[in-house]
Specification:
Elements: E1 16-21, H1 39-44, E2 49-54, H2 56-59, E3 70-72, E4 79-82, E5 87-88, H3 90-107, E6 111-114, E7 126-129, E8 136-140, H4 143-151, E9 157-159, H5 166-188, H6 192-209, H7 211-222, H8 229-245, H9 250-261, H10 270-284, H11 291-303, H12 308-311
Helix pairs in contact: 3-4, 5-6, 5-8, 6-7, 6-8, 6-9, 7-8, 9-10, 10-11
Length: 329
């Protein structure tokens, strides 16, 4: 499978490392002997990431094909059982998952994509069956998924089904690339100056998601050099993750576009200003995708030699343009 790898291959390939449920790569590890190959992940996104596949059910020794399993009991602490045989796999799965987390930590992942609905991998709204009525409620989380987000609370994690939604897909991929840059900062230049540089390049990205946390992050950076740096970067990472998990809105995007335009407005002709403002409003009214005003704005920033810190903003080029994530209306 193109793009797939094992941890031992980590010396080559793309910089983005993505954990993934094996069945999404087309591996025939499902309970029925099949797979759930997701061609967006392996085709479009696969050009830019190195996959680290894992199937928890196979890892704990279940065969392929195998008896189906499901979650039963209380949503907060469900049990994983095979209803036909009555086997309880809860302890087996949890023990393996907790032990596996240290190996996963060594992979230095930048994100994870899980199989929706799975009693082991499902992240949201997994069926949990009532033991008395045998009726399911969609309010559970797969056991492996629960251990994963418990161990790596700041790791961008998503289900493949939700990535079919354009807004959720754009949000996840943006967080994936931001997380990679954050990990690179921690590895290469974990200094107050390095933090200032990282924050400066991500200002507009954060502003588009969460203006309030944008202010908090700025105040944190201002404290760099005056408080424990490890504690400060941990707090910064938590606030940054919380900010980016909030989806952008057209209103906040337009506010950012107008903010950027302000740096060259005195150099713009009346016609250029009008053209930009019309493109902003067309985007707000869902007549054009975000790529239209962004492209026009970038043209004027380069033409009028805008300040370098604006030109270096991640907001203007957050991920490879070939992903076309800003092309949807």
């Amino acid at each position: 499978m193109s793009g797939a790898t094992t941890p031992e291959d980590s010396s080559s390939g793309p910089d983005i490392r993505l954990g993934i449920s094996s069945c999404l790569l087309g591996e025939e590890v499902r309970f029925d002997g099949g797979h759930k190959h997701d061609r967006y992940l392996t085709g479009t996104l696969g050009r830019w990431v190195r996959f680290y596949p894992l199937c928890p059910e196979v890892e704990i020794g279940l065969g392929t094909p195998r008896e189906s399993i499901r979650l039963v009991g209380e949503t907060e602490s469900p049990r994983l059982v095979a209803p036909r045989s009555g086997a309880d796999l809860t302890e087996r799965m949890n023990d393996w998952a907790r032990g596996k987390m240290e190996e996963i930590a060594s992979w230095k992942l930048h994100g994870y994509v899980l199989k929706k609905g799975s009693p082991s991998c499902g992240l949201f709204r997994v069926r949990v069956y009532n033991e008395e009525t045998d009726m399911p409620q969609r309010d559970g989380r797969g056991l492996f998924a629960a251990r994963l987000v418990e161990r790596f609370p700041l790791l961008p994690v998503e289900e493949e089904g939700r990535l079919h939604d354009a807004k959720l897909r754009e949000s996840f991929v943006e967080r994936l690339f931001v997380h990679e840059r954050w990990q690179r900062f921690l590895a290469e230049n974990p200094t107050p100056g390095g933090l200032v540089d990282f924050h400066s390049r991500h200002k507009l990205t954060v502003m588009a998601h969460h203006p309030k946390l944008y202010g908090e992050l700025g105040r944190l950076v201002a404290e760099a050099g005056t408080r424990d740096f490890g504690e400060l970067t941990r707090t910064y990472a938590e606030r940054l993750s919380a900010a980016l998990q909030r989806l952008t809105s057209r209103g906040r995007q337009v506010n950012v576009l107008q903010h950027v335009m302000g740096f060259v407005k005195d150099q713009l002709s009346a016609g250029d200003k009008e053209e930009l403002l019309i493109s902003f409003e067309d985007y707000r009214r869902e007549l054009v995708p975000l790529v239209v005003p962004i492209t026009l704005l970038r043209h004027h920033l380069r033409r009028h030699e805008a300040p370098e810190w604006i030109l270096s903003q991640v907001y203007l080029h957050p991920y490879p343009k070939e992903l076309m994530l800003r092309n949807h209306v």
